[in-house]
Amino acid sequence: MRSWITICDTCKRENWDPVTQPLTDGEILADLIEPRAKAAGIKTRRVSCMMGCIRACNVAVQSQGKLAYVLGTFEPTAENAQAIVEYTILHQDSDSGQVPYRQWPQSVKGHFTSRMAPLPVLD
Question: What does pTM read for this prediction?
């Protein structure tokens, strides 16, 4: 089952200044993630506000029938974008969505804010 990265495009880190930086931090992170994800066969989508403002920049890693994860407090850098994509590849390859800690890319460690169980399949 394909995994998705949902990216908050309205995230603004504490030091964001619209005069010197016309794009939000979330838009910058999305711009960095999207081409890397596309090259890896990972789907992305942007949403406006994931309600994690205190932990900007926020992303969610999700897939049908798997555990979902929300990560935040990222700087919008190429290194972090690559780590998010690499983690999502591992999530996609996992039957449950759970990835052993030892396999996590270094740049996602310490950024997990929540894990949600998959929705139940209803008759």
Answer: 0.95
